[in-house]
Amino acid sequence: MDQAQLEYFRALLNKKLSDLLGEADKTLEEMTASDGQVPDPTDRASLESERSFELRIRDRERKLIKKIRKALERIDEGTYGICEECGEDIGVKRLEARPVTTLCIECKSKQEEEEKAKGL
Questions:
Q1: H-helix or E-strand containing 118?
Q2: Could you give phi then psi for residue 89, rounded to 5 degrees?
Q3: Digit-coded pLDDT (tens) for 9-68
Q4: In this structure, are residues 101 and 88 in contact, taking their beta carbons and an 8 Å threshold?
Q5: CA distance 111 to 103
Q6: What is the pLDDT of residue 54?
Q7: Residue 57: CB atoms within 10 Å
């Protein structure tokens, strides 16, 4: 992968990271701003359900943030775009679709088949 492509993916990953961190800050502000004092039990249950859903989304995003940071580290180390399983280059189209990926399409397909066979 040439330097221009690496810089493209670095910018893409940094943008996504910035967006996710902004959403996390926004959620934190919204949750701390509302005092949660809802007298109606039905409204309170709805509010708690919405908060639970929001927190599950943020947890998924927290995991994605870790993957993004690791991808940025791989760019710095010079290992970005190289499959961790077979050592071959990961296709640019795959990286555009999933910039945090660590496996080429063949190794990922093999991994998914093994997981399916094990019933995971």
A1: helix 105-118
A2: -70, 140
A3: 999 999 999 999 988 877 777 777 666 677 788 888 888 888 889 889 989 999 999 999
A4: no
A5: 9
A6: 86
A7: 12
Instruction: For residue 91, give the nearest of 100, 10, 82 by alpha carbon.
Output: 82
Amino acid at 42: T
Provide the token pair at 34.
């509302």
CB 1 within 8 A of CB 81: yes
From 3.40.30.10, 3.30.420.40, 3.40.50.2000, 1.20.120.910, which CATH number describes the 1-80 domain?
A: 1.20.120.910
Bridge partners (DSSP) of residue 82 are 89
pTM for the structure as a whole: 0.81
